[in-house]
Write a structure and sequence with these properties.
mainly alpha, 2 strands, 68% helix, 2% strand, globular, membrane, Lysylphosphatidylglycerol synthase domain-containing protein
């Protein structure tokens, strides 16, 4: 969790230009094609292994018996997760932005996370470039980007605390041992406490001042009780967890206990920190391994996770890459409404001198 805000701090250097700034190399067409080719090659290798390796007949039989109806329901859940991401993005950055622009930026970020090998931070960096190219101030983008990351991470850690405590106290069934619930809950509480402490400590380091401001911004936004922010952050994760659960049912496997599914999902997602296109290998192995530790059959877990990961990579990319192409064209033609979210200019206040108006608040 700690490396992603630092990544954004490095990316949002104040010296970067706005008006004529080209698309960064990380998101160039050639880089996207390269990542897609790597991703496609990995997928083909996985399919070939499942089809050709003699010892994997049980996997092949499970996949051949998939329920189309349940898989379609899984697609709907992933679409709901994508919409939730757009909802929290719009809530954090600017509710004045049109739904079209918000959707294009949000879906572009999700596509970047699916195909780029930058440890899961590709979407945030791409969104920062889009907003900066659209006319927003670097300092404003930096604060809100850090706040956005913290708010979405806070949803994960909060549900990890709830799920872990539920398993440890046996309010939620399914954990082989209370320790397997207590440890994740304690770790999540430590992460939350560390993030809050970082807001105070980083103010002493000028280069990390944006992290401290982002923490304060995140807390301020959460205190507003904004439906878009709270529901969006929770829905982005919970719809994704539900899709993983449906992928178990789609292949005739029993649905894991809710607490186990929730805790295993959040722990397994740590594999996305590995800089591999789409997190392939890292997230998959993390999810399967964690599910097995919590008592889920290894074959059941492998089938569900492979199907889940396939949908998770495909749907955001199918939606987001065309959205990015359209948005880039609108940015070149200045046919967007991003600049409407720019913080207000300075005004003269009697007895106080020149005072900057606050950024637009939701």
């Amino acid at each position: 969790m700690s490396d992603r805000p630092e990544f954004i701090v490095e990316y949002l250097e104040p010296s970067a230009g706005i008006e004529a700034e080209p698309l960064p190399d990380e998101f160039s067409s050639s880089r996207l094609r390269h990542s897609l080719l790597i991703l496609g090659a990995i997928v083909l290798v996985v399919i070939a292994v499942i089809v050709l390796v003699p010892g994997l007949s049980s996997l092949r039989s499970r996949f051949s018996g998939a329920s189309v109806g349940w898989l379609l329901f899984a697609v709907v859940l992933q679409l709901a997760s994508c919409f939730s991401y757009v909802l929290v993005f719009r809530g954090v950055f600017c509710s004045k932005m049109s739904w079209l622009t918000s959707s294009e930026i949000g879906l572009s970020e999700l596509a970047a996370n699916s195909v780029l090998s930058v440890g899961g931070a590709g979407g945030l960096a791409l969104g920062a470039w889009i907003l900066r190219r659209g006319g927003l101030e670097t300092a404003y983008i930096a604060r809100r980007t850090v706040a956005f990351f913290l708010i979405t991470s806070f949803a994960n850690t909060t549900f990890l605390v709830l799920g872990g405590l539920g398993l440890a106290t046996h309010v939620l069934p399914g954990s082989p041992s209370w320790v397997l619930g207590a440890i994740p809950a304690a770790a999540a509480l430590a992460v939350i406490g560390g993030a809050l402490a970082a807001g105070r400590l980083t103010r002493r380091v000028s280069r990390l001042k944006v992290v401290a401001e982002g923490v304060e911004e995140a807390l301020r936004l959460l205190r507003t009780g904004s439906f878009a922010i709270l529901f969006g952050a929770a829905g982005y994760m919970l719809f994704d967890v539900a899709m993983l659960g449906v992928c178990f049912v789609a292949f005739g496997n029993p649905l894991p206990p809710v607490g186990v599914l929730l805790v295993a999902y959040i722990i397994g997602q740590l594999g996305s920190l590995i800089p591999i296109p789409g997190g392939i290998g890292g997230v998959d192995g993390g999810l399967i391994g964690t599910l097995v530790i919590y008592g889920i059959d290894a074959t059941d877990a492998a089938v569900a996770v492979i199907a889940y990961r396939g949908l998770l990579l495909a749907i955001p990319a199918i939606l987001g890459l065309p959205a990015l192409a359209v948005l880039r064209r609108r940015l070149r033609n200045e046919a967007h409404d991003i600049a409407a979210c720019a913080p207000g200019e300075s005004v003269e206040v009697l007895g106080r001198g020149l005072v900057e108006r606050p950024a637009p608040f939701i």
